[in-house]
Amino acid sequence: MFGFIKNALKRIYSAISSQLATLFALHEIDTATLEKLERILWEADTGIETTKKLTTELRDEMARGVLKTGADLHTSLQKKLTHLVTNPAYTPSPKQRIFLLVGVNGSGKTTAASKLAHLFITQKKRVLFAAADTFRAAAPEQLSIWASRTGATIYQGLPGQDPAAVVFQACEKFKKEEFDILIIDTAGRLQTKTHLMKELEKIGAVIKRHLPDEPITTLLTIDAMLGQNSLDQALLFNESTHLDGIILTKLDGTGKGGIVFAISARIQVPVAFITFGEQLEDIKAFNAEEFVSDLLSH
Ligand SMILES: Nc1nc2c(ncn2[C@@H]2O[C@H](COP(=O)(O)OP(=O)(O)OP(=O)(O)O)[C@@H](O)[C@H]2O)c(=O)[nH]1
Ligand SMILES: [Mg+2]
User: For the whole model, what pTM was predicted?
Assistant: First the structure.
């Protein structure tokens, strides 16, 4: 299993890491090296702002004489990128039992809900899904297929029903049947910010009223394949509700791991999980140090 995950991730890193390896092998670096680095980072979706900030700092270190070799560059970049993605860091706790998945159409909410359920079920937890995407007729059915694959239980509302009403009933079931984890799948349609805010507020209020002692963990799915475009959408959610973490999806479809750094710089919400395929196992808690180290040295 571990080998499989490593292989899937390797594809993500390969495009960027092979180019970086050439720079890190240099005995002496100069301004041209940093220009090359700038291009590699930018092409890997790191984003203009973040790339500029990083290379400015590196130029400064070079001017002060602390950055001389490719190896120095490797060490410094590793430190800077790790700092970028651990600031802030996602801190999971056993108190987190209610997970609300939000994100635009097709960004991978339902699949991520199922992968999360799978993770919890392998830890012997009892998982309840709330199928609060009542907008798309096929959505509850899609989630119920995942429920039977993972061994989770599902609470399904009626098509067109108010999502908050579905969440209310799912909360009741969660309490009465003493589930360990509640995962709420929501609709991905992106209307106005006001509408989005209202709907998420309503769902949040229902949970708070019925499960007052339970913290709500809101996770935003971001499609890594969309690159910089996905960030504008992410910003809209960040302005509409409190986000605890990001699930960066479809990393297998891009050789551009740099999006992780762009997210951290632009929206200051920690990456909590990454997904990299369509199987239930294709999810991993995000580990900044490991991610950066793999990205820089595969
Ligand atoms: N390759 C790959 N495909 C993924 C991944 N995660 C999700 N997908 C695919 O992306 C598509 C959309 O995923 P969903 O989970 O249905 O997305 P959603 O956000 O629930 O979409 P809506 O309910 O329409 O808003 C599906 O075809 C998934 O199989 C991933 O990590 N890698
Ligand atoms: Mg869905």
Answer: 0.92
